[in-house]
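With this grant's support, we have settled on a layout for protein records. An illustrative entry appears below exactly as we store it:
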Amino acid sequence: MPQQALLVMDVQQVVVDRFPDAEYLPRLGKAIDAARSAGVPVVYAVVGFRPGYPEVSARNKMFRGLVGAVARPAGDDRATQVHPDVAPAPGEPVVTKRRVSAFAGSDLDMLLRAGGIDHLVLTGIATSGVVLSTLRQAADLDFELTVLSDGCLDSDPEVHRVLTEKVFPMQAEVTTVDAWAAAL
């Protein structure tokens, strides 16, 4: 039987503040609670950079605009801290990524493989960012994948719908927090 891990990605305070949805964090919290109760590891991924942003190239259109705005240096707790409503429990790993995918510039792959994880359950902000990029890379790394459609959030509801209804099902099972939690 595959060993699952719930990935909670880019749910940092500064990111959540940019995506107002009063129902999102309680729903995500339900998935986290269900995972913990079922013994499914919960792994967090946050985006962060060293002081001075040496990882950010002037050629990187997305990240060069974030320098000093949203993605502050890793030492700035406000930027890299997971929102307190869904914060990691003691001992739950938090990996720092340097790009959109949770695998890019982090030790996530090593951590998962060392733990015997071969099935990832994806959640996070944004559906068109970290979830899409991580799904694509995880599929190429031969992980089994599940996406919790209501455990993801995007600023564009139509983009979210197209991804969760048309794109993600080609590489992942797509379900809801409630359905996934009930199946554990």
